[in-house]
Amino acid sequence: MSKAFIAAVLQDSLGCTGVAAARAADDVIAGIVGEIQRDGLFTLPGFGRFTRAERPAAQKLNPRTQEPVQVAASRTVRFKASPVLRELVDEKPAKAQAIVKTPERKGAGRGGNSGGKPVSRAAARRADSRA
């Protein structure tokens, strides 16, 4: 999956321009990264959980020369797929379609804005700062 793929899905779903969909995809990804940086955890129900993990400093071997090399401590992100996602990937297409929930109309379940379309937190903040 790529950012362009996410933008294309948003464009088809929302019926917006490619530029607006790319901006929305950027906002979604930035929101996920910010949440992981702040809390060390981001959970997307029905998809999975991203967690920040610490890698301690360690001494490894250079595979070419077999000399020891000191590797600095670092942080990384780990992903664990939800049981729903694992079942969707593992099952036959007919059963998988029955598990996936789709809204009845665009923007369903996301009240609060006049157009009925979903609004990201970042987009709402930008709109508030411009007003």
From TrEMBL:
UniProt keywords, alphabetically: DNA condensation, DNA-binding
> What's a BP term from Gene Ontology annotated to this protein?
chromosome condensation
- The residues forming a coiled coil are none
Lineage: superkingdom: Bacteria
In this chain, the stretch annotated as Disordered covers 95-131
Q: Has UniProt tagged this entry with the keyword DNA-binding? A: yes
| One family name in Pfam for this protein | Bac_DNA_binding
Q: Does the keyword DNA-binding apply?
A: yes
InterPro entries per record: Hist_DNA-bd, IHF-like_DNA-bd_dom_sf
- Spell out the molecular function terms from Gene Ontology: DNA binding; structural constituent of chromatin
Membership in a protein family? Belongs to the bacterial histone-like protein family.
Q: What is this protein called?
A: HU family DNA-binding protein
Task: Identify the species of origin.
Answer: Acetobacter garciniae
Lineage here is: Bacteria, Pseudomonadati, Pseudomonadota, Alphaproteobacteria, Acetobacterales
